[in-house]
Write a structure and sequence with these properties.
Low-confidence stretches of chain A: 1-18
Strand order of the largest sheet of chain A: 2-1-3-4-5
Protein name (chains A, B): LacI family transcriptional regulator
Keywords (chains A, B): DNA-binding, Transcription, Transcription regulation
Distance between the termini of chain A: 93 Å
Structural class of chain A: alpha/beta
Mean pLDDT of chain A: 90
Helix content of chain A: 40-55%
CATH class of the largest domain in chain A: Alpha Beta
GO molecular function, one term (chains A, B): transcription cis-regulatory region binding
Largest sheet of chain A: 5 strands, parallel
Largest interface: A-B, 47 and 46 residues
Organism (chains A, B): Aquisalinus flavus
CATH superfamily of the largest domain in chain A: Response regulator
Order of helices and strands of chain A: HHHHHHEHEHEHEEHEHEHEHEHEHE
Oligomer: homodimer
Pfam families (chains A, B): LacI, Peripla_BP_3
CATH topology of the largest domain in chain A: Rossmann fold
CATH architecture of the largest domain in chain A: 3-Layer(aba) Sandwich
Chain lengths: 373, 373
DNA sequence: CTGAAAGCGCTTACAG
DNA sequence: CTGAAAGCGCTTACAG
């Protein structure tokens, strides 16, 4: 019947008791304008024979639409390939569909993995990721961040360590009403805004590992004190040692900066001690690699002269020799979770957070073994 | 005089022969609404006593504005802190102020350095960077990219290797009229759309270096054939060798994949040859590090058993031992240049490209030396 | 369950 | 050199 109607000159005809076929009308539209024309909400409304208000309702999943109307509009949208303009939508909604990632982590692999994870979590949500490195020590730090968020009217923001630990920026975000998720080694505030990587648990594994191997003189190279993760990794490490009746001797502890060079420098210092430690836990792989370099410079090798354990499990851990026993932190997964949580946050839904889901784990490699003496 | 006027109840009064002081009016506005109110073009127009059309003209640097009007409006903008909403502007202009970076390079340091460079080049331009990893082998590769560009109505796009070498995506961008800059090892099309890293020149330095050291049996580990940079590095390398009457023996050439593991695997193969090469150029640092690992596995060391040269000069080159002699490629600078060129491209200006500005250079370290035999 | 009108914050012909 | 009106593609009270 409809087929017959459509045959007349390829046009649909509507009479009082016959409805126009929306599918056919949509196909005709696509036919007429070719594949490159981008339809608007007005095109959809015209084809469907409804107001754009109604189309808007189906876009925004309002329940106040008759099922039949909804499904017809849905079909038309599919056929003509309509997708609402995020810019126009954003203008009306007073926000954009952009997620900001604000970071100051110096490790490229951390940044890229995190980005990848966030992007995974954003997939098919219609949101895009805009990246924003920052410098917490800059005078314009807060102002830069604020301008970034306000100008782009960001949908929300994901903060990674160590800027995620900065209460100033968090206060600012709250003040301007910007949704945010903080990724950090430990819960810094109520769960709704946090993704926690539980670095302490990872540090504990490192401590247990070295203790079980029989080490007694055990050293530690930290990150900068402004990095909370470094604290957590140390606390966990000490817990792991304590389980075996050991404790960290302050004279075997040095402050690094999460860089290769700091691992090399602080490592050299520790190696000059007499007696020197038989094992050292570096708070990240980059420093552990530097420590390995220090060993070489001193004419020593791991694990016979010194056991080395790192944290992160990035490529560097398996690019050096011996390969580094380290704690694996699921960075990409953290990014994914952060993105998902941010999306839920805006939907006012209560995120069903599985507590303790992210647990780092130990990866044993060749850089650690029993103590020599 | 004006001061007196302003004293009356803090209001400005205008009489026939006295103009309102726009500065004072602007300050009063800021006073009244507090620091968090975001002004719009209408606020500026109202305070200045002009139409918003005129304000729009000064925002867009139209010459058709009287100097006095322009400077007054400029002052008001500064005082009340107006900055045009990119979303609204974009809606009217039919494009956004977002730059897309489309990449498929597997090296995190490359990606992060590139991003940083692009961001540097975008600074204070009012544009933001949205990142978009892609997979050239995916069926939806082209469609994904197209949707990304069209949905966000991107201002322009920066393509990095190897996706920058994909003619399909470039054709698509041209078809939909999206401005783009391709970053690549060699000019792939007319200069206006290219930033060239001249990898061949870098490869030549590597070749000269090993030739000068006296090596004769020289090997090469390439990247995947789909990476143009690998070709260029090899061609340059052969040029450098040729200058000294040497050429690459095919039996010392292996195909890697720019990864540590491929450097390890292909390196092991080359080391089993008899006689084995006395020097190997790996087309990137990651593979050179893998090659060093292969040496260790074989009970050999660099540079006495084998000289190793890499390419990139990333952190890995100085994290391993011996530190890798390599070719430095100014990735961050390339990103910066790409961003600047893209901005100029849209302004219809002819970019004044300094040809051959980006020249990679050799960095000598401990992994290379004279041949043993 | 649906629609006509106004508005988000800008710009662009068109007049003057 | 400047302005009133319409428009970019959406959404939101407000009616019905």
């Amino acid at each position: 019947m409809l087929a017959k109607l459509l045959c007349r000159e390829g046009q649909t005809v509507s009479t009082e008791d016959e409805a126009i076929d929306p599918v056919a009308a949509a196909e005709a539209w696509r036919q007429r304008y070719g594949p490159s024309k981008k339809p608007t909400i007005n095109d959809v409304a015209r084809i469907a024979g409804v107001s754009k208000r109604t189309v808007s309702r189906v876009i925004n999943k309002s329940p106040l639409v008759k099922d039949k109307t909804r499904s017809e509009i849905g079909k038309i949208i599919d056929i003509i390939g309509f997708s609402p303009d995020p810019q126009a939508r954003g203008l009306a909604f007073r926000h954009s569909y952009l997620i900001g990632m604000i970071y100051d982590n110096p490790n490229p692999q951390y940044v890229v993995n995190m980005q990848q994870g966030i992007l995974n979590g954003l997939k098919n949500s219609g949101h895009e990721l805009v990246v924003h490195p920052c410098n917490r020590d800059s005078d314009s730090f807060l102002q830069d961040a604020r301008q970034f968020v306000e100008r782009q009217k960001l949908f929300g923001v994901i903060l990674t360590p160590s800027v995620s630990e900065d209460e100033r920026i968090v206060a600012m975000l709250r003040e301007i009403g910007c949704a945010y998720i903080r990724i950090a080694s430990v819960a810094l505030e109520n769960n709704a805004n946090m993704i926690v990587s539980n670095d302490r648990l990872g540090g504990r594994e490192a401590g247990r590992h070295l203790a079980k191997l029989g080490h007694k003189r055990i050293g530690f190279i930290s990150g900068k004190p402004s990095f909370r993760s470094s604290h957590e990794r140390r606390l966990g490490f000490e817990e792991g040692l304590a389980e075996h009746g050991l404790e960290l001797d302050p004279k075997f502890v040095r402050e690094g900066a999460y860089t290769f060079q700091s691992g090399l420098d602080r490592g050299s210092e520790l190696l000059q001690l007499d007696p020197r430690p038989t094992a050292i836990f570096a708070a990240n792989d980059e420093m552990a690699a530097g420590l390995l370099q220090a060993l070489r410079v001193a004419g020593l090798t791991a694990p016979d002269a010194l056991s080395v354990v790192g944290f992160d499990d990035f490529q560097i851990a398996i690019s050096v020799w011996p390969r580094i026993t380290t704690v694996h932190s699921p960075v990409t997964r953290l990014g994914e979770l952060a993105a998902e949580k941010l999306l839920l946050l805006k939907e006012q839904e209560t995120p069903d957070t599985k507590e303790g889901e992210n647990v780092p784990w130990l990866v044993e490699r060749e850089s650690s073994g029993p103590p020599a003496n």
